[in-house]
Amino acid sequence: MLLKALLTLSLPLFALAQDQRLSFSETELADTLSLNVLNRGSQKYACKCYPGDKCWPAASTWSKLNATIGGNLQVALPPGASCYNSLKDEGGAGGDISTFDSQKCAEVQQNWIDEQWNTDHPISNLWTYYTNGTCSPFPESPSATCTRGYYGTYVVLAKTRQHIKATIDFARKNNIRLVIRNTGHDFMGRSTGYGSLVLNTHSFKDVTWHKKWAGPGAWKGGAVTVGAGIQGRELWRLANKQSPPQALVTGECPTVGFAGGFIQGGGHGPLASLYGLAADQALSFDVVTASGEILPANAVQNPSLFWALKGGGPSTFAAVISVTVKTFPDLPSAAVTLSINSTHTTDVEVYWKGVNAFHALANRYVENGMFVYYELLPLRLHVHPFVGPNMTAAQITEVVKPLFDKLDAEEVPYSSETLEFPTFFDLYTAVFEDESSGNDAITGGRIYTREDMRVNATAVNAAQRLAVENGAFIVGHIVGPGTGAPKVNNAIHPKWRQAASFSITSYTVAGNASLAEKAEAQRIVTNVIGKALREAAPNGAAYVNEGDLEEPNWQTEYWGSNYPRLLRLKKQYDPLGVFYARTTPGTEDWDIIDDGTRLCRKI
Ligand SMILES: Cc1cc2nc3c(=O)[nH]c(=O)nc-3n(C[C@H](O)[C@H](O)[C@H](O)COP(=O)(O)OP(=O)(O)OC[C@H]3O[C@@H](n4cnc5c(N)ncnc54)[C@H](O)[C@@H]3O)c2cc1C
Ligand SMILES: *[C@@H]1O[C@H](CO)[C@@H](O)[C@H](O)[C@H]1NC(C)=O
Ligand SMILES: *[C@@H]1O[C@H](CO)[C@@H](O)[C@H](O)[C@H]1NC(C)=O
Ligand SMILES: *[C@@H]1O[C@H](CO)[C@@H](O)[C@H](O)[C@H]1NC(C)=O
Ligand SMILES: *[C@@H]1O[C@H](CO)[C@@H](O)[C@H](O)[C@H]1NC(C)=O
Ligand SMILES: *[C@@H]1O[C@H](CO)[C@@H](O)[C@H](O)[C@H]1NC(C)=O
Ligand SMILES: *[C@@H]1O[C@H](CO)[C@@H](O)[C@H](O)[C@H]1NC(C)=O
C-alpha cells in the first residue's frame, strides 16, 4: 500500500523528468569498433562477428546463453531443412546437421503457403526472396544442398522478458547481429539476417483489457494491453468477446503481428480513416532497450522513447514486450465489393476507364471515414471490399453512388455486392480474404495525398497503369488516417495525416535468381515503377513497412520532418547498433556487404 502511494505521489516528478539515462559500457563500445575490422575497396568497416570469424562465440559460450534462458536456444533450421539429408552449417553451429525427416518434410510441403503455419515456425520468413530462396521444401532429391542463405544461425524462443533481456545482452556483448522476429511477415526482409541470432517474440500472447484507461495520458476510454506475439485476427476474436464488443486499429491481414513491426512502423488498417493509424492509438509500451534495461515508455515515463516507438521504425529503438492501445465500442458496418476483370471485358481501354473511375474518387471515400482494400493487375481489379464503418447499406451506397453512376455512364461492365453487418468484426471475418505465404517479390510503393488525388488523379492513375504494365502487382489501400482522427504527436511521417491512398507495388523475382537478375528487378521497382509513382504524386511519401529498400532519400520519404529527431534518439538509445532493420533511423551508418551477408558499420 505504501509503495503504491509513493508511486502515485512520484508521478508528477516523472512528468518533469526527461527519459531515463541508459548505461552503455565503454569497453563494449570500443570493441564494436575494433573487434572485426574489414576493408572493402577504400571503405573501412567495423563488422558484426560471423560464423568462421575469430570473434564468433565458441560453442561453450552459446551453451552459457542457453543455460541463462531456460534451454530456449535452438540452432536455427530453415523450414525446408527436414526435406534434406543435412543442413550445411558453414562454421555457424559446430558442423553439418542431419535434418531429414519425411514426416516433418510432408508437413512443411503441405503448409508452405499457409501463413499461420509459417508465422508459428521459429524463423520462417513469408517472403522467400529475403532468405535468398534457400532450402526450398521441394528439392529434387534429399541429397541436394540445404544452406541457411539469409536465415539466422541461432534462435531464441523467448518466453519471458528476462529471456529477451539476456538475448539482447548476449548479442551486444558478443557483437552478434540480432534479428527480432515476431511473425516473419516483413515484406522487406527485416526479420531475417545472415549469420544472426534471432530473437523470436511470438510466444508473448498475453492480452489484458481495460474498461476505462487510468494510466498515463489524457485518454479515459477503453484500452487493451497486447503482447508482442499477438496477431490481427486473434486480437479481433478476443475483442469481440468483450462486453460490449470492442474495436481497434489493426492491419487488414489476419496474421500480421500487432505490437511488433506493424505498430512501430505506423500501421494502417480498415478502421484507420475513422481513428488514425495504429501508432496513433498507443498509450504505453513495455520494452527492453539495447542496453538491456526493461522500461515502460508512455506520456509520463521515457516520453521521448514513447514518441519514437510510435512509428519511428521496427527493431530500431527497443524490443517491444507489449503495447497498450485505445479501444472503441464496435459499430455496425457495411461493405461493398467490386470486380472488373476478363469475365466482364477484354477491352483494355474499357477496363482502365473503370479502374480510373474507381481510384479517382479516393478522397470521397476517405472523407466519409471509409477504407478500401483492392488488388490491381492487368484485366483484374478486385475491390474486396469498400469498408464503411458505422454505416448501413443505404449509407455506403450513397457514398459509392458517383462511382457506379460513372461506370454505368461509361458502359464499363462489373459485378458488385453490398453487405451489411451488426459489427465491424462480423464484416472483417466474412469479407476479408486470407493471403498466402511462400512468395518471392521485391516491394515498393507510394502514399498519395488528398492534394495529389485532387490535382493529379489522372496522372496517378496513369502511373499505376504503368506499374502494372511493367509487371507490378498493386495491393491498394484507400485510407485517410488524418480525415477524422485526432492529431497525435508521434513519429509517423506527417504526410500520413494528408493521405488518401497507399499502394504497394510487388514485383516478382525468384529468391534464388542470380545477383544480376535481382539487380535488374530492383532497378525496375525503383527507377521505372517507383519513379513514375513519385513523379505523379510529388506531395506524397512512402511507408516504411511496405516500401522499397532502395527508395531514394528514404529518410525523408519514410519520416519527413520527424527524421532528425529520430536520428538523435537512435544514437541515444542504441549507440552500438544492437538493433538493425534496413532503412530505419541511423542505418545510413551501416552497409550489408559481401552480397547481402555481413552487417558492418562504416568507419
Ligand atoms: C500479407 C501482408 C499483409 C499486411 N498487411 C498490412 C496492413 O494491413 N497494414 C500495415 O500497416 N501493414 C501491413 N503489412 C506490413 C506489416 O506491417 C509489416 O510487415 C510488419 O513489419 C510486420 O510486423 P511483424 O511483427 O508481424 O513481422 P516480423 O516480420 O516478424 O517483423 C517485422 C519487423 O519488426 C521487427 N519486430 C518484430 N517484433 C518486434 C518486437 N517485439 N520488438 C521490436 N521489433 C520487432 C522485426 O525485427 C522486423 O524489423 C502486411 C504485410 C504482409 C506480408
Ligand atoms: C539448449 O538447451 C536445451 C535444453 O537442454 C536443448 O534441448 C537445446 O538443444 C540446447 N540448445 C543448443 C543450441 O544447444
Ligand atoms: C545467395 O544466392 C546466390 C545466387 O543463388 C549465391 O551465389 C549466394 O552464395 C547465396 N548466398 C548465401 C549467403 O546463401
Ligand atoms: C471476375 O469477377 C467475378 C466476380 O468477383 C468472379 O466471379 C470471376 O471469377 C472473375 N473472373 C476472373 C477471370 O477472375
Ligand atoms: C456513428 O454514427 C452515429 C450516427 O450517425 C454518430 O452519432 C456517431 O458519432 C458515429 N460514431 C463514430 C465513432 O463516428
Ligand atoms: C530456384 O528454385 C526453384 C525451386 O524452388 C528451382 O526449380 C530452380 O531450379 C532454382 N533455380 C536456380 C537458378 O537455382
Ligand atoms: C502530375 O503528374 C505528372 C506526371 O507524372 C507530373 O509531371 C506533374 O508534376 C504532376 N503535377 C502535380 C501538380 O503534381
UniProtKB/TrEMBL annotation:
Q: What is the residue range of the signal peptide feature?
A: 1-17
Q: Which GO terms describe its molecular function?
A: FAD binding; oxidoreductase activity
Please verify whether the record's keywords include Oxidoreductase: yes
Instruction: Tell me the ranges covered by the FAD-binding PCMH-type domain, including all copies.
Output: 147-330
List where the protein spans the membrane. Answer: none
Keywords, sorted A to Z:
Oxidoreductase, Signal
Spell out the SUPFAM superfamilies in the cross-references. FAD-binding/transporter-associated domain-like
The text of the family note is:
Belongs to the oxygen-dependent FAD-linked oxidoreductase family.
Q: What is this protein called?
A: FAD binding domain-containing protein
User: To which species is this protein native?
Assistant: Coprinellus micaceus (Glistening ink-cap mushroom)
Give the organism's phylogenetic lineage: Eukaryota, Fungi, Dikarya, Basidiomycota, Agaricomycotina
